[in-house]
């Protein structure tokens, strides 16, 4: 990260199929080694699986999944006089979206033995129902924030 | 530029991207299927997003059903070929009506994307990647 100036937030073009910017950012995070076409194929194939399996509009399932996986607060370590406290902090929208994307993709990737489209479809559908590893992670984080509520006054 | 081939008038534009070159002809017609290298688009570009790239200039000026697009495209990969065609279509549209240029430029269809593969340098592993430094 540059020490000289704040990095500017990039604007991304909406994705080609649904014209959705959030989905476009998600696709970019699925992408490895600059292979955007492959990433798009994975996502749209996963969406087809979602459509077949849940009879719901895949984009809505995706958006519901994102909402359920998006944290509102996180805990940041803060050292005060030798002791390290976990200080609950509110999140900027961009940060919480990035976390949700990261967790959903990590959850999908950790499903070994199935193609990524399958893993993504399952992870998204579970998250849309409020289950799955990404949502569990968010709840975990919220619980930690709640438990460390006493340290809120340390936040800067 | 206005040319004629087999008694029909068309507007011409050359589009490029990376190593792809597209020669685009726009025939004044009621839409009609887009032909790329003698095949229908959906056969030549077997994936929706690629086909959409080609139609973008016509979509933004809302004149898709006034032209029949005929393309000869060579070189490069599929994606860059699609983008070369988009560039060529935009230029052909400017040949048809220069007044469209501003609108097309706003969407970035007029600019030739100058990013090309950087050549490898001797003494380096790739274009910029230097061999690992060893002190002695």
How does this model look, in words?
The complex is a heterodimer of chains A (156) and B (136). Chain A has 156 residues and is mainly alpha-helical. Chain A is built from six helices and two strands. The longest helix of chain A is centred in the first third of the chain and has 19 residues, at 36-54. The model of chain A has no long low-confidence stretch (mean pLDDT 88). Chain B has one domain (2-106): Ribosomal Protein S5, domain 2 (2-Layer Sandwich). Chain B is built from four helices and six strands, in the order βββββααβαα. In chain B, strands 1-2-3-6-4-5 form a six-stranded mixed β-sheet.
Element layout with pairings:
The complex is a heterodimer of chains A (156) and B (136).
Chain A: H1 21-30, H2 36-54, H3 58-69, E1 73-80, E2 83-90, H4 93-109, H5 116-128, H6 132-147
Antiparallel strand pairs in A: 1-2
Chain B: E1 2-5, E2 8-17, E3 20-28, E4 35-36, E5 39-40, H1 41-44, H2 48-60, E6 67-74, H3 78-96, H4 101-106
Parallel strand pairs in B: 4-6
Antiparallel strand pairs in B: 1-2, 2-3, 3-6, 4-5
Helix pairs in contact in B: 2-3
Number of helices of chain A: 6
Number of helices of chain B: 4
Query: What oligomeric arrangement do these chains adopt?
Result: heterodimer
Kindly report the CATH topology of chain B: Ribosomal Protein S5, domain 2
Main beta sheet of chain A: 2 strands, antiparallel
> What share of the residues of chain B does DSSP label as strand, in percent?
25-35%
Radius of gyration of chain B: 18 Å
Structural class of chain A, by secondary structure, is: mainly alpha
Mean pLDDT of chain B: 86
Question: Which term fits the overall shape of chain B?
Answer: elongated
Whole-number mean pLDDT of chain A: 88
Q: State the total count of DSSP E strands of chain A.
A: 2
Portion of residues in helices of chain B? 25-40%
Strands ordered across the widest β-sheet of chain B: 1-2-3-6-4-5
Spans of chain B of at least 5 consecutive residues whose pLDDT stays below 50 are: none
């Amino acid at each position: 990260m540059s020490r000289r100036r704040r990095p500017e937030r990039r604007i991304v073009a909406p994705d080609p199929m649904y014209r959705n910017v959030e989905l476009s950012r998600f696709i970019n995070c699925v992408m490895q080694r600059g292979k955007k076409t492959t990433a798009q194929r994975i996502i749209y194939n996963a969406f087809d699986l979602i459509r077949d399996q849940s009879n719901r509009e895949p984009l809505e399932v995706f958006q519901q999944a994102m909402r359920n996986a998006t944290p509102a607060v996180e805990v940041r370590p803060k050292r005060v006089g030798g002791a390290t406290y976990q200080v609950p902090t509110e999140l900027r929208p961009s940060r919480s979206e990035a976390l949700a994307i990261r967790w959903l993709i990590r959850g999908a990737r950790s499903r070994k033995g199935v193609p990524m489209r399958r893993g993504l479809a399952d992870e998204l559908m579970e998250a849309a129902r409020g289950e799955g590893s990404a949502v569990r992670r968010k709840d975990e984080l919220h619980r930690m924030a709640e438990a460390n509520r006493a340290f809120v006054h340390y936040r800067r | 530029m206005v040319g004629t081939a087999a008694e029909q008038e068309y507007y011409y534009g050359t589009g490029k991207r990376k190593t792809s070159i597209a020669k685009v002809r726009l025939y004044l017609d009621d839409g009609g299927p887009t032909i790329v290298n003698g095949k229908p688009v959906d056969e030549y570009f077997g994936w929706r997003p690629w086909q959409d790239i080609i139609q973008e200039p016509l979509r933004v000026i809302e004149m898709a059903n006034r032209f029949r697009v005929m393309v000869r495209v060579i070189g490069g990969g599929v994606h860059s070929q699609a983008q070369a065609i988009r560039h060529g279509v935009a230029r052909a549209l400017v040949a048809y009506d220069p007044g469209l240029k501003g609108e097309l430029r706003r969407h970035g269809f007029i600019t030739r994307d100058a990013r090309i593969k950087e050549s490898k340098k001797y003494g380096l592993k790739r274009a910029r990647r230097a061999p690992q430094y060893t002190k002695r």
